[in-house]
Amino acid sequence: MGKIASICRLATVAMFAVSASQAVYAGSALPKVLIIGDSISEGYTPHVVALLRGEAEVSRIPENGETSAYGLEHMDDWLGSTRWDVISFNFGQWDFCYHNPALPESNDRDKVHGSIAISLDQYKANLEKIVERLQKTHAHLVWENTTFVPEGESGRNVEDAIRYNQAAQKIMQQHGVAVVDLYDLTKGFEPGLFKRPHNVHYSDEGYQKIAVAVAQGIRQSLPASVHRSP
Q1: Are β-strands 57-60 and 32-36 bridged in parallel, bridged antiparallel, or unpaired?
Q2: Distance CA 176, CA 91 (A)
Q3: Which of helix, strand or coil describes residue 218?
Q4: Domain of 78: which CATH number?
Q5: Is residue 230 part of a domain?
Q6: d(CA 127, CA 71)
Q7: What angle do CA 173, 179, 180 make, to 5 degrees?
Q8: Which residue of 129, 153, 211, 214 has the fewest CB atoms within a 10 Å radius of its CB?
Q9: pTM for this model (two decimals)
Q10: DSSP label at 200?
Q11: How far apart are CA 181 and CA 78, in angstroms?
Q12: In this structure, what is the dihedral angle of CA atoms 54, 64, 125, 210, given to the nearest 10 degrees?
C-alpha cells in the first residue's frame, strides 16, 4: 500500500476507534456489544451506538476487518479480554473483490483482469473457523450478510455477493447464528442512498437505514439482564 493510502487508512482507523470508545463507560452494567466488519460497518456503527444508547455499550474493532482470512488472523486481538455479550460480525465484500497486481495497490480493483481475493471454498472454511472461535466467547452471535453490489462496480460481481451470502447462510444456520439480511435491504435502496454510483458504500442516510436493521438484530440478542461488578 502506498504511503498516502496508509496514512489515510490510519486516520480512518483512529477516527472510528475514538467514535467507538465514546460508547464505552467503565463500570457500566449494560451489555457489551462488539461489531466486527469492513468499512461498511464503520459507516453504520455510530448510528448503531446512538440507537442502542442506554441499552448496550457498543464498540467496534479499531480497523477495517477486510477479508475472512484477515479476520481469522486478527480475531484474538479484536476480542481481547472483554466478556462480550453480543458479537455482530460480517465478512464478504473484501473476499469476493477482484484485484489486479498490475495496477497501483491503492486502486487495483479489476473484475475483468484481476483475481478474486478469497475463493468461495476458502471463504466457507474461514467462516467455519471464525464462528467456532466466536462461540468460545459464549456471546450471542449476530451475522450481517453482505450488502448489495451495484451494477458497474469495478471490482465485484453482483452474482458473487449472492453466492457468498448463500454459503454463509448455510453455515450460520448450522451453527444456530442469528442472521440480519442486509442484502435484500440495500438491494432496494434508491440511488441517493449510495455514496456514489457503482459503489458499495453509502451516504449517511443510507448508513442510518442499515443501522436500524443492525441495531434491531443486536437488540433481539441482548441478554434480558446482566449483572456486573462495579
Answers
A1: parallel
A2: 18
A3: helix
A4: 3.40.50.1110
A5: no
A6: 9
A7: 160
A8: 129
A9: 0.85
A10: S
A11: 24
A12: 50
Unique residue bearing C-alpha cell 471490482: 155
Domain membership of residue 33 as a residue range: 3-221
pLDDT tens digits along 76-106? 999 999 999 999 999 999 999 999 999 988 8
Amino acid at 209: K
131 assigned to some structural domain:
yes
**Which amino acid does the sequence have at 185?**
L
The CA distance from 173 to 228, in Å, is 31
- 213: which residues sit within 8 A by CB, 6+ positions away? 180, 181, 182, 185
Residue holding cell 456514489? 196
Burial-class residue 82 by CB neighbours within 10 Å (0-12, 13-18, 19+). Answer: middle
